[in-house]
Amino acid sequence: MPRPADVALLALQVLGLVALNIAGEYLASWMHLPLPGNLVGMLILLALLLTRVVRIEWFAASAAIFTRHLAFFFVPIAVGLMAYGTLLRTEGAAILATLIASAVVGIMVTGGTVSRLLRSHPPEGS
Q1: What is the rounded CA–CA span in Å between residue 20 and residue 104?
Q2: How many angstroms separate the CA atoms of 112 and 96, rounded?
Q3: Can you tell me the distance from the alpha carbon of 18 to that of 14, in angstroms, rounded to the nearest whole number?
Q4: Torsion over CA: 119, 22, 34, 101 (sign)
Q5: Are the C-beta atoms of 49 and 56 separated by less than 8 Å?
Q6: Neighbouring C-alpha atoms within 13 Å toward the C-beta of 41
Q7: In this predicted structure, what is the pLDDT of residue 126?
Q8: How many Cα atoms sit within 13 Å of 120 on the Cβ side?
């Protein structure tokens, strides 16, 4: 059974992530950015982490839980795709190529970001 302090800490971390998401949505809408608001929120978080305004430890527990249960976030997407069967049959190859290319770029950017963060903030005990 988790301790109340752990639950409260996790709730604060999730609240912080939600606040950054809302800020990103607001900024994207207000500035008419051609980017989704949740991406703007992630960029805000990245900027805060890189400038050390926010420490990565502040979000570690919630990030670990979201990562552990990441597969659940893809179920609604997969169900929603069923409504686009015709589009997937005609444009499926182009969509698949775009998805693969964007995944590769995303992995490379994530790897570079994590590498940079680990160089500037090595894990304890290493």
Answers
A1: 25
A2: 24
A3: 6
A4: positive
A5: yes
A6: 15
A7: 64
A8: 11
| Cα distance between residue 121 and residue 114, in whole Å | 10
CA distance 14 to 10: 6
- Any idea which residue has 């409504």 for tokens? 83
- Amino acid 105: pLDDT: 97
User: In terms of C-beta density within 10 A (0-12 exposed, 13-18 middle, 19 or more buried), how is residue 25 classed?
Assistant: middle
Instruction: State which amino acid sits at residue 67.
Output: T
Per-residue pLDDT of the chain (126 residues; tens, 9 = 90+): 778 878 888 889 999 999 999 999 999 999 999 989 999 999 999 999 999 999 888 888 888 888 888 888 888 887 888 888 888 889 989 999 999 999 999 999 999 999 998 888 888 776
Q: Give me the pLDDT at residue 56, please.
A: 87
Tally of residues, the chain = 126
